[in-house]
Amino acid sequence: MLNRRYPILISGTRYSPEFQTELQYAVPWKSVLEKAYGNHATCQCPSSGARKLSIKRREGSDGFHLARFGGTGHEHSNDCRFYAPAPERSGMQGYAAGVVEEGDDGSIRVRLARGIRVQDPKSEERESTTLNRAPGKSKPAMTLLGLLHLLWSESRLSTWYPAMEGKRNSGIVNYALLQAAERVAASRMKLSGVLLLGAQKDSKGAARNLAVANSAMTRDLRLLAISPLARYNTERHSGDISRLPLAGPFGMPMLNLPPAVWATAARRFERELSAWKRGSRVIAVAQVTPPKGESFSRVDVVEVALMQVTERWIPVDSDYEAVIESKLHASGRSFDKPLRYDADESEVFPDFWLLDTGKDLPLEVFGMSTPVYLERKAIKTAWYNQEYGDAGWWSWNAAADPKGKDIPPFPPKA
């Protein structure tokens, strides 16, 4: 399972998960952490990394908690609650220094292309620089899509284990996103303070959305809304769309969708919109600006980004990837989908990581046969062979096998 709690080693003494969590041990566990405050602990998850943890005091209380040191998440095992993928395993490698910074308390600070605070004179300049920079240069800021990928990855929603079967639904997804947003900050504030999530009518989620919207807009803050798109309806969605069609928009203000904003999204996310029209689940993230002197019941969307996910909420970048994700699931495999963030095509990382072979193994789907793509394919093949050896990675030439009749067997489990 994910986010597993392992024994902790502090000053030579090993403390079990039960001692860390059960109510009967709450007082002695707090005493252990308080006495060790200022030193470090060591996670006992099965990994070869150092796995050092800092002992932190909770803000505004006399409590203590454990947190991974910044940049050490990859030292933990994949199922450990302190795990985080190394930047080079995904598109996270495409950012310039300082765009994403991890604190020793487990928090993450990001520099967004468009800031959370409306009165941010540098935000529009950063957005223009980020979206129009030359290929091959590190991104100077994170776009809205990159932020969605970050929250999805930090929520561990891009990872699947067979034990999760039947345990991932919209409620679980929203909870995981909200927990991640508590740790991610931009414009010097937690994203949870401006995050709206899909909710049912008259639910706690709807009440939370309303409270967040009212609080954020009175402080002149931009809101973030994350939800699946509503099921595609030809009559309502084939023409001009004046309101962002989210599933479960309750508690949110009306998300007015300017034609230019939707036109831009349609160009950038043509594939995702096509998948939506075919019935696939597509996640939308929207950034909205509070109105000036108007009712909070209606706000303008300033940007939309889209991401296709499978039935298990795993992101995919093509229908071929969706085929492999489904086959991995049917085979009872454990796997992770590394996300692209804002990386260029020049950054190399696999379409999936297989997590149950003893050593994480890359899976690659080659889906095109154009001259430019074949040149890129040769570069990636050479890189994989160099890094993992001929037998250390898996691939499927979907361009030559579009119906998936000859998909190679996956490497066996350890």
TrEMBL record:
Source taxon at top rank: Bacteria
Stretches with biased composition (Basic and acidic residues): 118-128
UniProt-listed InterPro entries: DUF1173 (IPR009553)
Alphabetical keyword list: Plasmid
Disordered: annotated segments: 118-137
Protein's recorded name: DUF1173 family protein
